[in-house]
From TrEMBL, chain B:
Assigned keywords, A-Z: Flavoprotein, FMN
InterPro entries, alphabetized: Flavoprotein-like_sf, ISF_SsuE-like
Organism listed in the record: Candidatus Desulfosporosinus infrequens
Protein name as it appears in the record: Multimeric flavodoxin WrbA
Signal peptide: none
Length: 229, 186
């Protein structure tokens, strides 16, 4: 007898409006893998959901999912405000229903522009807290350092390596969902293997280049428009 | 002397009102001119991660809304107090959005702190003393601990307090804080 495939909702949570985002790239990777493995995958975008007033339908899809995967960038050391808005609204929706919906498995994939992956730890704990309050089951998080390079340096050997590590982490996620595993899984920490000094040098140079394309000089980056002292 | 109190319009609970009144009074008694900004759901657009505040119009967000005044007031205050309902162990959405859009006040460049972690340096040589007060009626131990970690682990110069209704305790701690500008160490 064929069992119904497990339903997964992938929640891509980049605040970016139309530009390509690292979270979008990672969500696409998860989506492909999960579909290949026979999961029933529904994908949503937090900004689109909020702006196009689709939250009711998206929240219902989330309530009926076996698993939810939140993929987002770290903003000022934690979840972006737009994702907090989505979670608060989901919580209000969940509370109104009062039917005890819950029991979905929850995963978080957080990427940070700083090279250290562990800086994402508190953001993972916020998703864990959200899971507890909505009676879902937090399983594990994937913490990514140097996330900005995933888009900017696609195809380079160090990004190929990190992508391969990410694929392993996403495969573990798929296995965890399909087998409904109950054993504890540690958060996974993945960082670009790239010399820190060079990472800083390239990053800092990148900001100056971007400013120049906007007609600014390096010194303009330091301007102090609000200084009254 | 200017003091700024920033709070979330969505969480104007009884406990918030008491806390806000207490601190506002305490700051006034200390000689501060107190400005209060309450951020509602529709007051600020979401940060869109464009970084134009760093590379197109350095120091200013390109979105034209109330955030420009908030960032101006931030930089020109001696002390800024954030009153935050603790939600899932972090800032509520409206306050977090204002923090996301606070980044014009820092520079894009990467630097290493003394503890080895990465940071963006301050744009201004003089910054207000920041006091973050998390409040809530029935905060779990996990959420309280998480809120303290979220706010202190990656910041060097903030005071973080938790308020769950004990007026005497919060006032005693608040009254002993040094409410002066902190320089460029964020």
């Amino acid at each position: 007898m064929n069992r119904e495939p497990k339903r997964v909702v992938l929640i891509s949570s980049s605040p970016k409006v139309s530009e390509e985002s690292t979270s979008g790239l990672l969500t696409t990777r998860q989506e492909k893998l999960m579909k290949t493995e026979g999961l029933d995958v529904h994908r949503l975008d937090v900004r689109q959901s909020l702006m196009k007033r689709r939250t009711e339908a998206d929240f219902e899809a989330m309530l009926h999912a076996d698993a939810l995967v939140f993929t987002f960038p770290l903003y000022v050391f934690c979840l972006p405000g737009i994702l907090m808005r989505f979670l608060q609204d989901y919580y209000a929706h969940w509370t109104q229903r009062q039917d005890g919906a819950g029991g979905s498995r929850i995963y978080a994939v957080v990427n940070c522009g700083f090279p250290e992956a562990n800086i994402n730890q508190e953001a993972i704990r916020v998703i864990e807290s959200f899971s507890r309050k909505t009676q879902n089951i937090f399983r594990f998080g994937v913490m990514i350092g140097g996330g900005g390079m995933l888009l900017g340096a696609q195809g380079t050997p160090f990004v190929r390596k990190i992508m391969s590590e990410l694929d392993k982490a996403f495969s573990l996620m798929v296995e965890d969902i399909i087998q409904s595993r109950k054993d504890a899984v540690e958060n996974i920490s993945i960082a670009v293997n790239f010399p820190r000094k060079l990472y800083f040098f390239m990053g800092n140079k990148g900001w100056v280049s971007m400013a120049k394309t906007n007609g600014l000089k390096k010194k303009d980056l330091f301007c102090k428009p609000y200084s009254n002292f | 002397m200017q003091a700024l109190i920033i709070s979330d319009k969505e969480y104007q609970t009884k406990i918030f009102t008491r806390l806000n009144q207490m601190l506002s009074k305490s700051l006034t008694v200390k000689g501060f001119n107190v400005k209060e900004i309450q951020i509602g759901r529709n007051d600020l657009a979401f940060c869109k991660g464009c970084f134009d505040c760093w590379v197109k119009k350095p120091g200013e967000c390109i979105i034209n809304d109330a955030m420009a005044q908030i960032n101006y007031d931030f930089i020109n205050s001696e002390v800024v107090v954030y009153l935050c309902q603790v939600v899932f162990g972090q800032f509520s959405a409206n306050l977090k959005n204002s923090l996301d859009r606070w980044i014009p006040n820092i520079l894009p460049f990467f630097e290493t702190r003394r503890d080895g972690s990465t940071m963006h340096p301050a744009r201004y040589s003089s910054n207000p003393k920041q006091i973050i007060i998390g409040y809530g009626d029935e905060l779990s131990d996990e959420d309280t601990k998480l809120f303290i970690d979220v706010t202190t682990k990656h910041r060097q110069n903030v005071e973080v307090l938790i308020y769950q209704g004990d007026d005497a305790e919060i006032l005693q701690v608040f009254d002993h804080l040094n409410l002066k500008k902190v320089g460029a160490l964020l």
